[in-house]
From TrEMBL:
Stretches assigned to coiled coil: 33-67
Designated name of the protein: Prefoldin subunit 2
One Pfam family it belongs to: Prefoldin_2
Gene Ontology MF annotations: unfolded protein binding
Phylogenetic lineage: Eukaryota, Viridiplantae, Chlorophyta, Mamiellophyceae, Mamiellales
Length: 151
């Protein structure tokens, strides 16, 4: 009895990749495809940047976690170097690292959604990107009807 509801939930979860608003014309398809690829690429870059920042936070945490809590510690806040103690700085750096993890997780989800949408458009409209090879091309050599959009 609960199965149809579960199936409808699963179908609805898959719907973002299939998107309800498919572009109408070939030009719109290409523009949408290229925009999504560019946005996914930007998300990849931002995620890498934040991963590096998170790794720097982890290095700082490892460096100061075993120090005397009353020891002087300097922290750069908004371009200003301020003097604090280890016990004040350590929790703040840990909180920032955890915040970076949350942001990275959200951006990764957004990136995955865009990549799924790009793959969906690529399969549906048989979009081929110049300079990229596709495994199915090698299997279907010589077959007719391989027309699609070239981006």
């Amino acid at each position: 009895r609960d199965r149809p509801e579960i199936m409808s939930e699963i179908t609805e979860e898959k719907a973002p990749a299939a998107k309800q608003d498919d572009p109408a014309s070939e030009k719109e398809v290409i523009n949408t495809f290229q925009t999504l690829r560019q946005e996914a690429s930007q998300l990849f870059s931002k995620i890498n940047e934040l991963e590096n920042e998170k790794a720097e936070h982890a290095l700082v945490i490892d460096a100061i976690k075993d120090l005397d809590p009353k020891r002087k510690c300097f922290r750069l806040i908004g371009g200003v170097l301020v003097e604090r103690t280890v016990e004040e700085v350590l929790p703040a750096v840990q909180k920032n690292r955890d915040g970076l993890s949350a942001v990275i997780e959200k951006l990764t989800q957004q990136r995955d959604d865009k990549v799924d949408r790009v793959e969906y458009l690529q399969k549906k409209y048989k979009i081929r990107v110049r300079g990229e090879e596709y495994p199915e091309d090698e299997e279907n050599d010589g077959e007719a009807g391989k027309q699609g959009v070239l981006a």
